[in-house]
């Protein structure tokens, strides 16, 4: 466990619902999951576009932030099927996941597009969570640092220092996503420290401010171990965030692992 006075940054736990649930289920979730109101603890759920508006309403008075899972970098135009930052803001959306490995893999999202999206998100007042991570083949070939470094460099060299410190990075090894196979907390720390060092090379002033999450089969049984690492500020939780009680348990354990005592009960 890390002592609270030794913690330099906020704790940020985000759920990624991917293409799951329904508007009705989202509303029920908003009633069942009420995150603890603690200074230094940020919680969010990234949901399908269709649920953004009703969730924002259902969460009135809650500190739970609502994120989208993608957006386009242009304000408007002939981009059939896309959603812009201003459209997300119009619905009260707080942030957006960018460059998730599923988007990179199935929808051809490139580092260049991710950079443009991150800049647009920041200038629009949306909190970007930018995902990076290597494949199993890259790790087995010992090229995981090289892969992640190129993603992190391509992002941060394109950002101004003021933009850089507003970005959250999620390190998600692709081999750990949805597989039940989690990176060990040492492997996760090693890469998150490497990401911070890479950011420091580019923007020395931003490196200690950037929040870095780990993602990939995070669950209640492994979150405390992951969060006990100094360069890991939070988690991006996929499958295990779909159940409100399970997600609440993860948030509580994550906070406690960073020395934050949750007072009182969670829930309305
Ligand atoms: P998982 O997904 O927790 O289900 O492995 C994480 C993610 O893809 O963000």
Walk me through this protein's architecture.
There is one protein chain. The protein has 11 helices and 8 strands. The protein is globular, with a radius of gyration of 17 Å. The two termini are 28 Å apart. 38% of the residues lie in helices and 15% in strands. The longest helix is centred in the last third of the chain and has 18 residues, at 185-202. The chain has a single domain, classed as Aldolase class I (TIM Barrel, Alpha-Beta Barrel). By secondary structure, the chain is an alpha/beta fold. It has an 8-stranded parallel β-barrel, surrounded by 5 helices. It has helices at residues 23-32, 52-58, 85-90, 101-107, 111-123, 136-140, 144-156, 161-164, 185-202, 223-227, 244-257; strands at 11-16, 41-46, 65-68, 95-98, 127-132, 168-171, 211-215, 234-237. Residues 16, 172, 177-178, 215-218, 236-240 line the site of 2-phosphoglycolic acid. 2-phosphoglycolic acid (PGA) binds at residues 16, 172, 177-178, 215-218, 236-240.
């Amino acid at each position: 466990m890390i002592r609270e006075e030794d913690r330099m940054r906020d704790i940020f736990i985000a759920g990624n619902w991917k293409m799951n649930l329904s508007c009705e289920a989202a509303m029920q979730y908003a009633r069942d999951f009420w995150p603890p109101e603690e200074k230094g603890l940020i919680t969010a759920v990234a949901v399908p576009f269709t649920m953004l508006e009703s969730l924002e309403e259902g969460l009135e008075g809650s500190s739970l932030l609502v994120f989208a899972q993608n957006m386009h970098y242009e304000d408007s135009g002939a981009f059939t099927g896309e959603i812009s930052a201003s459209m997300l803001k119009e619905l009260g959306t707080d942030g957006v996941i960018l460059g998730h490995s599923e988007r990179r893999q199935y929808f051809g999202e490139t580092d260049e597009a991710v950079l443009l999206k991150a800049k647009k998100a920041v200038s629009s007042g949306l909190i970007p969570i930018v995902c990076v991570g290597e494949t199993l083949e890259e790790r087995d070939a010992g090229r995981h640092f090289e892969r992640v470094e190129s993603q992190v460099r391509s992002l941060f060299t394109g950002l101004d220092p003021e933009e850089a410190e507003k970005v959250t990075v999620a390190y998600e090894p692709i081999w750990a996503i949805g597989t039940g196979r989690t990176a060990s907390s040492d492997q996760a720390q090693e890469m998150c420290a490497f990401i911070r060092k890479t950011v420091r090379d580019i923007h020395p002033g931003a490196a200690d401010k950037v929040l870095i999450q780990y993602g990939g089969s995070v669950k209640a049984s492994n979150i405390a171990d992951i969060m006990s690492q100094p360069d890991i500020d939070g988690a991006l939780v996929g499958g295990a965030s779909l159940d409100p009680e399970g997600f609440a348990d993860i948030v509580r354990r994550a906070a406690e692992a960073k020395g934050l005592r949750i007072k009182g009960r969670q829930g309305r």
